[in-house]
Amino acid sequence: MKFVFDIDGTVCFDGQRIERPIQTAIDECVKMKHEVIFASARPIRDLLPVLPKKYHSFQMIGGNGAFVMKNEQIEIESFDWKTIKQIKDLIEQYHLNYLVDSDWHYSYTGDEAHPIFERINTENGAQNKLLNDLTCIAKIILFTSNSDIEEQLQGLSIELHKHTNESLLDISPIGIHKYAGLEKLAVFEKQYVAFGNDQNDASLFQHALESVCVGEHEIKRLATTSIKKEDVANSIIKLAEKYV
Q1: Residues 12-32: tens digit of each pLDDT
Q2: Which residues contact 6 (CB under 8 A, 6 or more apart)?
Q3: Is the CATH number of domain 2-76+177-242 3.30.470.20?
């Protein structure tokens, strides 16, 4: 069986590492010959530092599906330039702060004390560039909870995830979501077990054989079951044993 894990709020709770008991449970999952895939809102660049190096060769989905890593090679789905211009116009009109991710580099104008900035991996040559200097843009975060901006974005050819607890809007190219990333890895409906915790895990839950929501987000209505974060490790082991 394939086991697909979201990262932040699912197996990582401090933005920096996977907790030791959960690592041990994932290791047991691998020992039982299950395949582990990580699927995060983070681009692959920022996902790698959270994972122990022993997991770096695993298949991964980043940017909610915009980045896919297979055999340690990264494939990217980017916005068309018409959509990029429309979003840039909104940024200028409302003087918005943002994080924009390209293939490896990024453009960030927000508060450097924000947890998202602290998660940006600047190793391996990643640079904070001017927005107009980025090519192949694959993911955009706007630091706003303005409903007028959200309404205008909903009229564009994009995928939009709203994170009300962080006052930000997470934007991906149209048709990009985590399950679309799985399809690129030749993983299809009912072929995997999913662990997630947030709106951007909806597509994972909808197509999974079995799904687990960590926490009390409303997205738990799409999951098979919901658990507390203290129960993640045990839940991984139980499901690994169930599908061995």
Answers
A1: 999 899 999 999 999 999 999
A2: 38, 39, 40, 41, 178, 194, 195, 196, 197, 198, 200, 201, 204
A3: no
